Amino acid sequence: MKDRVRIFEGIHNFRDYGGYAARDGRLKEGVLWRSGQHGGATPADLAGVAELGITTVIDLRGDSERQTMPCLRHDEFDGLVLFAPGETAGSELAPHEEAGQGITTAAEAKAAMTKLYVNMPFRDVLIRSLTLYFEALATRDGASLLHCLAGKDRTGLAAGLLHRLLGVHEDDVMADYLLTNEAGNQQRRIAAAGESIRERYGAQITDEAIVMLMGVDADYLHTATRSIAERYGSTERYAEEVLGVDAARRAALRERLVA
């Protein structure tokens, strides 16, 4: 799994989420990339990203996040950056930042994160962003990059939806989601986020709680999956009725992404 990860100095959680066995073959490698934001990217980072031939970037962040931390791009980047205007997380904060309010312990952090996942698939602006994501994958050539702020919650949900629609085994869906907890320089990523979260909410938040906020847990994705099933019965029906991913679009995704 760690072979999927690209190590950059100022971009965290950068990895290939292709290559998994799917319903009709195997997801292509080198065309599906995911990461956190690129606001802290170094020139060497940007050059490394440029080598991947990315033609489409899907930014799942909200307007406030993009304004606070604009993503840097290589001077020669001429691809399309897609996003839906508004706040995809229901506020100006990323999910892990939102979950930090009023918590102190790791158990409280996990409970807050799990609660956020109940409604995450149904947030209006995120739905519009996910619709752009699936449309781009079904219609645009070249490699794509999917990212949010930390590249773990909104991005993890989106990647998991794609995997399931293409028939990736549930074990691989979850393994890819949980790779956030191992990808790249974890200490630097968690330390930077911890400083920001404590500045916002106070120094009482424990180190263990920060780790929980900045990581992912199987219960989070299971919660979103159950929430989708309770409302729509299946991921396929949710994707079709909410995101416009009908049979024709699923076929287009298979044609472009499965070898």
Describe the protein.
GO terms for molecular function: protein tyrosine phosphatase activity. This protein is α/β, with parallel strands linked by helices. The chain has one domain (2-253): Alpha-Beta Complex (Protein-Tyrosine Phosphatase, Chain A). 49% of the residues lie in helices and 10% in strands. The protein has 12 helices and 8 strands. It has helices at residues 43-50, 63-68, 95-98, 106-119, 124-139, 154-165, 170-178, 186-201, 207-214, 218-232, 235-243, 247-257, and strands at residues 5-6, 14-16, 21-22, 25-26, 32-35, 54-59, 80-82, 143-147. The longest helix is centred in the middle third of the chain and has 16 residues, at 124-139. It is globular.
Number of helices: 12
User: Overall pLDDT, averaged?
Assistant: 93
Placed side by side, the strands forming the largest sheet appear as 1-2-5-8-6-7
Determine the CATH topology. Protein-Tyrosine Phosphatase, Chain A
Distance between the termini: 20 Å
Shape: globular
| CATH architecture classification | Alpha-Beta Complex
What's the β-strand tally?
Answer: 8
The top level CATH class name: Alpha Beta
Summarize the helix and strand pattern as letters. EEEEEHEHEHHHEHHHHHHH
- The number of domains is 1
Please bin the fraction of helical residues.
40-55%
Instruction: Point out poorly predicted stretches.
Output: none
Quick one: CATH superfamily? Protein tyrosine phosphatase superfamily
Structural class: alpha/beta
> What's the gyration radius in Å?
17 Å
What is the percentage of strand-forming residues?
Answer: 5-15%
EC number: 3.1.3.48
Keywords: Hydrolase
Enzyme class: hydrolase
Protein name: Tyrosine-protein phosphatase
